[in-house]
Write a structure and sequence with these properties.
single chain, alpha+beta, 7 helices, 73 strands, 17% helix, elongated
C-alpha cells in the first residue's frame, strides 16, 4: 500500500496506469500533481488535463492525458495542450465521457491512438492533425468502447458486439491494417464489452452486459471459446484473470476473488479500502488498485498451489519423480499423479491406513512400479494398471522399514525373523521383483537401535542413520562416531552427499557435516528435519517442521507461510528434472514460481549515519539498509552480505548493522549488497570509504621521527643558546664600537657644520660686501655727477635722491642682517601699486637695464594696497634679481599687477583672509625650477646656483618670504622647466580704495 506518507501527492487515488517502462502513474482527482512509482522511489510531476482522466506514458517517457479541448502532452517539464475537434464533439455528444474517459494509447514519441465511439484516430503532435484509421461502421463491433495495448505490442479494441485484435506493432497501424474480429455466439446474448485485460496465455478477460442476467458479468475469451460468469448480488466494474484458475472482479466497494474450481467460487477479499476506483493489470498475476485509502499492489507469492491443480489441501507427505518424468505425491487421501499438465488421483485401498511417519517415503523401482511405505504396511503401485498391491516379505521374515534407495533403484529394507520377533535383523535389497541380502547390521545398530536411513555416497561409502548417530561402512567394517569426532550425541535422521567428499547428516534440530576426517556443526535451530535434497545448482533444500530452508553459496534462506507455503510444517521437498521445486506440507502442495520476483533490491549506506574516521583499536559500527522493488520482500526480511577491501563476501544474514573489531590502520572500503527472499542479489553494492587513524604514540615511524626531531631540536637549541650568548657579547662589543664611532661622527659633524657656517658666513659677507660696493658705487657715481654739474640743480637733486634711496636700501640690508626688520618698525600706509613698481624699476640702474629689459604690465585699474613701501620695493628687487639670475643676466622680465576675487591653488604662503586681493607678479622666461627643488627655494641660505656677483647668498627669497609673512601677504609660485617661472605677491585688501591708472 502506498499513501501520502510514502510520497504520493494524496492518499486518494482515482486512476492508475502502467507504462511500458514499468512505472506506475497515479491520478488523485482534480489536484495539482500526478504521482509516480518506479518500485524503489515515489515522486510527483505537475498535473495535466482535468478530472480523473488517466495519465499514459510511452516508451520514451512522454506523458499523455486528456484535457477539455483535446489532448495534452508533458515534455520538458510542462504540459502542452493540443485541441482535437473530434474529441470535443465526442464530449458534447456523449455525456458519459465526462466521467468515463476516451481511451488513449501512446504508440511512439509525439504520436498516439485515440478511440472514439465511432472511429479510431491517430494524432500527430508535429503536424497537430488527426488521421482516420477505421470507422466503427466499417467493423462488426458496433460502437467502440475501449482501446488497450496487447502483450505482443499490438492492440485490443472492444465494442458493443465483441473484440478486435490489431496486429503488432501498434505504431505501424494504418487504415489498411487488417483487424481480427471476435464476436461471441449469438445465444450468449452479451453486449457492451468493456475494460479488457489480456492474461499471460493470450486470453482476454472483460466485463459485458448480459441480457439474460440483466447486469454486467465476467467474460473470458481464450482465443477459441467464450465463457461468462455472473457474480450474484454484485455489479462488477472490471474483471481480469489472476493465475491459472483464479479470476478477480472489482466493484465500487469490494474486490472479489473468483475460483471456478471451488464450490464457493466467489470470495470477497478483506482490503483496508472504502472505495475502488480503477485497476491496472501486469503480467504474472500482478495488479494495481486505485482506492480511496491509497494505491494498492497485489503480487502472487513465490510459493503457490500448482497451476490447474485440484484442491489438494490435505497432508502431502512424500514426493517422487520416476524415470518417465511423472511426478507422484502421497497425500492423506490418495496417490496423485501429475503428467503433461494433467492431474490424476488414485485413492488409497480401503484396507490401507495412510499413517505416514517421518521415515516413510515414495520409491520408484527399476521395474516402473512405486513402493509406498507407511506405518501400517507397504504398498506397490503399478502405473499402467493403476492398481495397488501389498508387498510380500521374504520367506520367514518380516519387513520392518524402508531405509533408502541405491542409485540403481533398489530399495534398502530392514527385515527380521518373524519368530522370535526382531531376531536376526539384516538389510535386504528389493528391485521390485526379488529380495537380495545386503549384509548383517552392525553390532551398534542391532537389535533395538532405531534406524532412519541407509545411503550410498558418491565415494562408495555406505552410511547408516541410527538413533545413536551415523555409522559409516568402509573397508568391510562399520565405524561409529563419538563426541571426539565432533558429532554430538543426536539421532541421525537424514543424509545427503553434498559433493567434494563432504556429506551432511541431519539430526533432530541441527545439521552436521563430515569432510572425511571430522564433523562440524553446519547450522542448528531447525525443528525436526524431514528431508534433505540437493538441487541442480548445487544448493541444498531442507524440509523441516518450521518451514523450508534453502542453503546456497554459504548462505541460508528460510521460507514460511509469509512466502506462500500453505503450512509451516514441510514434510518433503523435491526438485524435478525441469528445475521446478515442490513442497509437501500439512495443508497441501506448493510450487515455487521463480519468476514471481526477478528484480533485486537496492542497497544504500547513509554517510551521515556512519563514521568516516575512527581511531585504531575502536570498533567500527556500520549501518546500512535496502529496499526491494515494490517491497515484494519486506525490508525487515532482506538479507545482507558484506566485504571489506574487496575481500571475500560474507554469508547473507538479516543484520543491518556490522561491527568491525580490528580493520587495521589506514583507508578501507566497505561494501554491502542485499538479497531478497527469491535470491535476487543487488548487482551494484553500496560502498563506504572510511579511515582508521593510528594515535601518534602508537605509530612506530612517527615516534621515531618525533624522537629524532626532539634530538635535533635539542642540539639546535644548544647551538642557538651558544650563538645567542656569542651574539650578546658581539652586540656589546659592537655597541662600544658604535658609541665610539658615533662620538667621532658627532665631532666630525660639528666641525663640518662649523666649517660650513664659516663658509656660508664668508659667502654672505662677500655678497653683502658686493651689495654695499654696488651701493657705494652708486653713491660715488652720483657724487661725481654732482661735482661735474654743480650748476645743474635738477641733476644734483636727482642724484641726491638716488643717494638717499640706496642709503636707505643699505640700511634695510643691515636691518635684515640684524633679524629681518620687523613690521612694527615700519609705518604702513596705503600705497599706489604703480608708483611702488616704478620706483623699484628706477633703483635697478642703467647697467642692469642694459642687459635685462624689465616691462611692467598692470591692470587698467588697481586699488591702493596697505604696506610698507620700502619693504615691498625690497621684495620686488629680490624677485627681479632672482629672475635675472634664472635667465643668465639676459632677457625680458615682465611685471604684472591685477586683482583676485579668489585665491589660486598651490599657495606657498597664504595671505590674511580678505574679500579680494591684489597681486604683483614677476615673470621670467628662464630655465625654470626643478619640481623637487621648488618646496625649498624660500629656505634661508638655500641656492641652486653658484654665487653670482649679484645674489648668491640664498637670502633673497628667504627675505621675501619673511617680509610677506610679517605683512600678512601671500606668495604663489608657478614654474615650468625650460619655460620660466612666475613669482606672485598676494596682497589682501581690507576695504575699497582709490584706483590708479596703470603705466
Amino acid at each position: 500500500m502506498y499513501r501520502a506518507a510514502d510520497g504520493l501527492r494524496e492518499s486518494l487515488c482515482t486512476a492508475v496506469t502502467i507504462s511500458p517502462r514499468g512505472n506506475v502513474w497515479i491520478k488523485h482527482g482534480d489536484v495539482d500533481a500526478v504521482s509516480w512509482v518506479d518500485g524503489y522511489a515515489v515522486g510527483t510531476v505537475p498535473a495535466g488535463g482535468s478530472g480523473n482522466f488517466r495519465v499514459h506514458d510511452n516508451r520514451t517517457g512522454q506523458l499523455w492525458s486528456y484535457c477539455k479541448t483535446g489532448l495534452t502532452s508533458f515534455q520538458g517539464g510542462n504540459w502542452a495542450e493540443y485541441p482535437v475537434p473530434e474529441i470535443q464533439v465526442e464530449a458534447t455528444t456523449y455525456f458519459s465521457r465526462l466521467f468515463r474517459q476516451t481511451t488513449l494509447l501512446p504508440t511512439e514519441r509525439n504520436r498516439a491512438l485515440v478511440l472514439l465511439s465511432d472511429r479510431l484516430l491517430e494524432f500527430n503532435v508535429r503536424s497537430n492533425q488527426t488521421t482516420l484509421l477505421r470507422r466503427a461502421s466499417d467493423t462488426r463491433l458496433g460502437r467502440f468502447f475501449e482501446l488497450v495495448e496487447a502483450r505482443d505490442g499490438g492492440a485490443w479494441v472492444t465494442g458493443s458486439n465483441g473484440l478486435a485484435k490489431l496486429p503488432s506493432p501498434a505504431k505501424r497501424i494504418t487504415s489498411a491494417t487488417p483487424w481480427h474480429e471476435f464476436l461471441p455466439p449469438t445465444e450468449a446474448r452479451l453486449q457492451n464489452f468493456q475494460r479488457p485485460f489480456e492474461d499471460d496465455q493470450g486470453g482476454v478477460c472483460c466485463v459485458a452486459d448480459s441480457l439474460p442476467e440483466g447486469k454486467r458479468v465476467l467474460v473470458y475469451f481464450d482465443g477459441q471459446r467464450w465463457q461468462s460468469f455472473a457474480i450474484p448480488g454484485e455489479n462488477i466494474r472490471a474483471a481480469w484473470r489472476g493465475d491459472e484458475r483464479t479470476f478477480w472482479a472489482l466493484t465500487i466497494n469490494s474486490l472479489l476473488r473468483v475460483d471456478l474450481s471451488r464450490s464457493e467460487a466467489v470470495t470477497k477479499e478483506k482490503f483496508p479500502a472504502g472505495h475502488f476506483y480503477d485497476v491496472a493489470v501486469e503480467p504474472k498475476g500482478v495488479f494495481w488498485l486505485a482506492t480511496s485509502e491509497g494505491l494498492m499492489r497485489y503480487a502472487p507469492l513465490a510459493w503457490r498451489p500448482p497451476p490447474d491443480a485440484p484442491g489438494i489441501d490435505l497432508q502431502v507427505h512424500a514426493i517422487r519423480e520416476d524415470r518417465e518424468e511423472r511426478l507422484w505425491f502421497a497425500s492423506a487421501d490418495a496417490l496423485w499423479l501429475f503428467q503433461n499438465g494433467r492431474w490424476l488421483n488414485h485413492p488409497w485401498p480401503r484396507d490401507f491406513e495412510p499413517m505416514f511417519q517421518a521415515s516413510d517415503a515414495l520409491y520408484d523401482l527399476p521395474d516402473g512400479e512405486l513402493l509406498i511405505t507407511a506405518a501400517e504396511g507397504f504398498l506397490l503401485f503399478d502405473p499402467p494398471s493403476s492398481r495397488f498391491s501389498s508387498l510380500a516379505p521374504p520367506a520367514e521374515r518380516a519387513i520392518e522399514m524402508a531405509l533408502g534407495q541405491f542409485p540403481d533403484g533398489r530399495v534398502v529394507l530392514r527385515t527380521a525373523l518373524r519368530s522370535p520377533p526382531n531376531a536376526s535383523p539384516r538389510l535386504e535389497l528389493f528391485n521390485g521383483r526379488t529380495f537380495e541380502t545386503f549384509r548383517e547390521l552392525p553390532a551398534p545398530a542391532s537389535p533395538d537401535d532405531k534406524l532412519s536411513f541407509l545411503a550410498v555416497a558418491a565415494s562408495g561409502d555406505v552410511w547408516l542413520g541410527a538413533s545413536t548417530g551415523p555409522l559409516l561402512y568402509r573397508d568391510e567394517k562399520w565405524q561409529a562416531f563419538t563426541r571426539s569426532e565432533g558429532y554430538v550425541g543426536e539421532a541421525a535422521l537424514r543424509f545427503l552427499d553434498v559433493g567434494e567428499g563432504r556429506v551432511w547428516c541431519g539430526g533432530v534440530d541441527r545439521i552436521f557435516e563430515y569432510d572425511g576426517k571430522s564433523w562440524r556443526l553446519v547450522r542448528a535451530g531447525f525443528d525436526r528435519i524431514h528431508a534433505l535434497i540437493k538441487g541442480r545448482d548445487g544448493s541444498v533444500w531442507v524440509a523441516t517442521g518450521n518451514g523450508l530452508a534453502h542453503y546456497f553459496k554459504g548462505s541460508w534462506m528460510f521460507t514460511g507461510v509469509e512466502d506462500g507455503l500453505p503450512s509451516a510444517t514441510v514434510y518433503d521437498v523435491w526438485e524435478d528434472r525441469r528445475g521446478r521445486v515442490w513442497a509437501g506440507t500439512t495443508r497441501g502442495l506448493s510450487l515455487l514460481r521463480r519468476d514471481a520476483d526477478l528484480d533485486p533490491p537496492r542497497t544504500h549506506i547513509d554517510p551521515a549515519e556512519n563514521p568516516s574516521r575512527v581511531l585504531e583499536g575502536s570498533p567500527v559500527t556500520l549501518v546500512f539498509g535496502a529496499r526491494d522493488k515494490w517491497q515484494y520482500t519486506p525490508t525487515e526480511r532482506l538479507l545482507y552480505s558484506h566485504r571489506v577491501d574487496e575481500g571475500g563476501w560474507s554469508p547473507y544474514a538479516p543484520d543491518t548493522t556490522i561491527v568491525l573489531t580490528n580493520p587495521g590502520a589506514g583507508g578501507h572500503r566497505f561494501e554491502v549488497r542485499a538479497m531478497d527472499r527469491n535470491w535476487n542479489e543487488d548487482t551494484q553494492p553500496a560502498s563506504l570509504a572510511f579511515a582508521v587513524i593510528v594515535p601518534w604514540y602508537k605509530e612506530a615511524r612517527l615516534v621515531a621521527i618525533a624522537a629524532a626531531g626532539a634530538l635535533v631540536a635539542l642540539i639546535l637549541g644548544g647551538i642557538a643558546v651558544n650563538r645567542h650568548w656569542r651574539l650578546v657579547r658581539s652586540y656589546a662589543e659592537i655597541g662600544k664600537i658604535v658609541e665610539q664611532r658615533t662620538g667621532e661622527l658627532e665631532r666630525a659633524n660639528r666641525e663640518l657644520f662649523h666649517s660650513q657656517k664659516m663658509k656660508a658666513l664668508g659667502t654672505l659677507s662677500a655678497g653683502i660686501a658686493h651689495d654695499f660696493n654696488s651701493i657705494l658705487s652708486i653713491i660715488k657715481g652720483s657724487a661725481q655727477i654732482i661735482e661735474a654739474n654743480l650748476e645743474d640743480k635738477e641733476k644734483i637733486r636727482t642724484r641726491v635722491d638716488r643717494i638717499q634711496t640706496v642709503v636707505e636700501q643699505g640700511s634695510g640690508v643691515v636691518k635684515a642682517l640684524l633679524g629681518f626688520s620687523r613690521l612694527s618698525d615700519k609705518e604702513t600706509s596705503p600705497c599706489e601699486v604703480t608708483a611702488v613698481v616704478d620706483a623699484t624699476m628706477k633703483l635697478l640702474g642703467d647697467q642692469f637695464l642694459q642687459d635685462v629689459r624689465v616691462r611692467f604690465a598692470p591692470a587698467p585699474t588697481l586699488p591702493q594696497i596697505p604696506g610698507a613701501k620700502d619693504l615691498i620695493q625690497q621684495m620686488l628687487l629680490n624677485l627681479i634679481l632672482n629672475a635675472s639670475d634664472a635667465m643668465g643676466g639676459e632677457g625680458e622680465i615682465v611685471l604684472h599687477a591685477g586683482t583676485y576675487d579668489a585665491l589660486p591653488d598651490g599657495l606657498v604662503l597664504s595671505p590674511a583672509p580678505a574679500a579680494s586681493y591684489v597681486f604683483i607678479a614677476v615673470q621670467d622666461f628662464g630655465c625654470g625650477i626643478e619640481p623637487d627643488v621648488l618646496p625649498r627655494i624660500f629656505e634661508p641660505f638655500f641656492t641652486t646656483k653658484a654665487f653670482s656677483t649679484r645674489r648668491g647668498t640664498g637670502l633673497g627669497l628667504s627675505m621675501v618670504y619673511e617680509f610677506a609673512k610679517e605683512m600678512g601677504y601671500g606668495l604663489h609660485v608657478e614654474s615650468a622647466l625650460g619655460k620660466g617661472s612666475t613669482f606672485s605677491i598676494l596682497i589682501p585688501l581690507q576695504g575699497s580704495g582709490e584706483g590708479s591708472a596703470g603705466a
